[in-house]
Amino acid sequence: MVFGYNVAKALATVVEHRDLDVVELWSGVGSVAKAAFGLGLKVAVFDKNRLPGETEATEDILTHVGFLLALSLVMRLRAGGLLTMAPVCSSWIFLCKKQTQRTASNGYVGNLDSKSVRDGNTMADVAALFYTVARARDVCAVIENPPSSTLFQYAPIRDATSDSDSVTCPRCVYSREPFGKRFGKQFKFVATAPWICALASQCRCPGRLHQKTVKERIVNGVRKVWGDPKLLAESGSYPPALGRALVQAWMQRGTAQGPRSKVKRARSTTTALIPKAHGPRSAIQGSRSMVPSSKVKAQRTRSKVPRSMVPSSKVEARVPKPKSKPTCTVQGPSWCRLSLHADELSCEGERDMSSDAGRQPAWMSCSLDD
To answer: What is the CATH code for 7-251?
Structure first.
């Protein structure tokens, strides 16, 4: 029970419309929501600190009003939509273990005399409730915390995610800072389906040198370790590339159309994101007036675009079908944008090559004349 709600009561909540594609709770900088919004999806974010001094009473999930607002957003998600949650990890990590006293002997409930522990438990209870409700409503749900976080051993979270898939990826793979200045923080994502495995990756930083978030000192022969609050908060935020990679993995999770809502495109041009990794087939269709009367011929020496991608009646971007059992692959985010105008077909994209030692992000583009 959380604020008087269990799973049955939450599922009985009445909502007028299931009109949201993506909801990001504990959103922080909102990288996931921004990536989805950039694709034309309908999104909602929820975070206590999103608008300091204005929304604290309504977007504080530890209050009854904030809990009900967050629940209403979860209930508005379409079937096949995406719910991401990143409960505050400060009371679940080793840096605060001495104060929180979260151990296996007490079921990681911790020292209930500490407000941070009680708040952490409440947020974990809320996340477990929403995760279960989302699964019951055919919504893709994700919970994120550091791999060493005891949140995943806490009974409500452990029970809710017992048969879920998980993956760990380092922040530095998706960062754009120079090598040596990137945070080496690890993210562990637990999701309702194996599509999350597409985020699996490994650190490629030379010498595995990262920006430190903790400080240490020897006092009377005892090693003291403490974290820098500003750096810890910064390292916990998702880089934009990680938000895009998560949304990309969700949209190619094995269904033909991704979320049930369709992204509206402008009639003057047809644009779609084509993931380079294995994913579902997607089609880009334009009106007849957009396609020249003569057949468009693919000049492989100039554009490297296969003929099968440019038929005379419509443009289709075909990507290989996913395997029956998705596997975790080591890859960074990559994007490709294909546009068809009245007189030319152009293609441009971005591939994150920052994970390769000594290399910077690269751009590629090509054009196909009439």
So the answer is: 3.40.50
